[in-house]
Design brief:
The structure is a single chain. By secondary structure, the protein is an all-alpha fold. The protein contains 16 helices and no strands. It has helices spanning about 25-55, 55-65, 70-85, 85-110, 115-145, 150-180, 180-190, 195-200, 215-230, 230-250, 255-260, 265-290, 295-320, 320-350, 355-385, 385-410. Helix 10 (about 230-250) packs parallel to helix 13 (about 295-320) and helix 14 packs antiparallel against helix 15 (about 355-385). The longest helix has 30 residues, at about 25-55. It is globular.
Length: about 425
């Protein structure tokens, strides 16, 4: 992987604390409510699908297909976000997802128990999430100066991961006391509260431009791809993000399956197992914020994280004691977030503004798409080979891939 191109000192001068910048605290609160609703809704849907199918495949498939639109359409949504004003892009993304949440609550209220129906709804929600992803990734750069961008990204990631704690806890509590239907409606109301927050934001221009003759979505997408290919450091950061998704972060997505096979699908244990990687990710966000602009150290942390991270999956698959699995998933969240948020931070500080949405949507498509692909495949393999064999095999492959990355890095020095 090539050396990181460090920003000039003039680019990093100025206010470095995004909390002191007008508008960013409101943006952070918008991110918070949107991701809180996402986790509440995801838990409710996974819990209900497991109830009606008792199948690891269907449970992981319904969760995983939400990522597929990001993998397929995400880069083109990035092109659209580069073309239109950010405020309009926010409204479109929120509207698509709100409609998906409303239809899911309606299907449940009418007693629909066909798993593929919820898979289709998950795809629609995934389309909204895919459109929201580039918007979410470029919004901090539209609110804070470049000097505060690394800390803003770390804070946004910390907020996202805090909701991974509060969301499952709130979701599990609502399911236990009020049922799945109330939980789905609550997720819709929470998510919709981002609308008034977004309307109050003062956004810098994202360089949106009208489509000109010959500027197709495909040509503008390939412009983003060519930019990444011509910047080896960006390509290296994308490789690390994909490795983290395939061999580290995807294992945490199997928490409902772990809970179903090892702890009889109990609501409380599910909330704790979903909580564990979120705690690790929050710790990661705090540590990444302290690294600030130390790009060399951040790159080293990313490489070590994708090498050691697969071990956490092996531990979670082999051992049956709840505390061991909990702390394994906590470590999974810590190391997976180091690699994922670290790669995002380094890309954001180097990418050109007019290409930001396209490049970050490619990052999101590869990172999230890899999670979806891996989680769906692992769920199917678990039904065939069993949990322990699947987790052990994936962990071994991930460790060898990480070691190859370490040796490649050492050979360049």
């Amino acid at each position: 992987m090539s050396q990181v191109t460090k920003p000039q000192s003039s680019e990093l001068g100025g206010e470095k604390n995004p909390i002191r910048i007008h508008g960013y605290p409101r943006l952070l609160s918008g991110f918070f409510v949107a991701t809180l609703a996402l986790w509440v809704h995801r838990l409710a849907m996974s819990f209900f699908v497991w109830q009606i199918t008792q199948s690891a495949f269907w449970t992981t498939a319904v969760a995983a297909v939400q990522f597929i639109p990001s993998a397929i359409f995400g880069p083109f949504f990035g092109v659209i976000v580069d073309r239109i004003p950010l405020r309009r892009a926010i409204n479109l993304a929120l509207g698509i997802t709100c409609l998906g949440y409303a239809l899911t609550a309606l299907a449940y209220s009418y007693g629909v128990t066909i798993p593929w129906a919820y898979a289709l709804l998950a795809v629609w929600i995934g389309i909204g999430t895919a459109f929201y992803a580039p918007v979410r990734l470029v919004l901090p750069a539209a609110v804070v100066p470049k000097s505060a961008l690394p800390a803003a990204i770390a804070l946004s990631a910390t907020s996202f991961n805090l909701t991974r704690i509060l969301g499952p806890f709130l979701g599990a509590t609502l399911i236990a006391f009020f049922g799945v239907g109330t939980t789905l409606i609550t997720a819709l109301v929470i998510y919709a509260s981002f609308f008034p927050i977004s309307w109050s934001l003062n956004l810098a221009s994202n360089g949106a431009r009208r489509k000109t003759q010959g500027d197709s979505l495909w040509s503008e997408f390939t412009e983003g791809v060519d930019y990444i290919k011509s910047t080896p450091a960006l390509l290296g950061f994308l490789v690390i993000a994909v490795m983290s998704s395939l061999f580290v972060r995807s294992m945490a997505e199997l928490a409902p399956v772990l809970n179903g096979l090892k702890f009889d699908g109990a609501e409380f244990s599910l909330s704790l197992l979903t909580l564990a990687p979120a705690i690790g990710a929050i710790i990661s966000g705090v540590l990444l914020g302290r690294l600030g602009g130390n790009f060399t150290r951040l790159r080293l942390v990313m490489i070590l994280s994708v090498t050691l991270g697969p071990l956490t999956g092996w531990i979670a698959g082999v051992f049956n004691a709840f505390p061991i699995i909990f702390f394994a998933l906590l470590g999974n969240g810590l190391l997976g977030s180091f690699a994922s948020v670290g790669s995002q931070t380094l890309i954001q500080t180097q990418v050109r503004n007019e290409l930001r949405a396209r490049v970050m949507s490619i990052w999101a498509s590869l990172a999230l798409g890899s999670i979806a692909l891996a989680a769906a495949c692992y769920g199917a393999i678990i039904d065939w080979l069993g949990l322990t064999a699947t987790f052990s095999a994936v962990s071994c492959i991930g460790i060898f891939a990480g070691m190859a990355l370490v040796f490649q890095e050492r050979s360049k020095h």
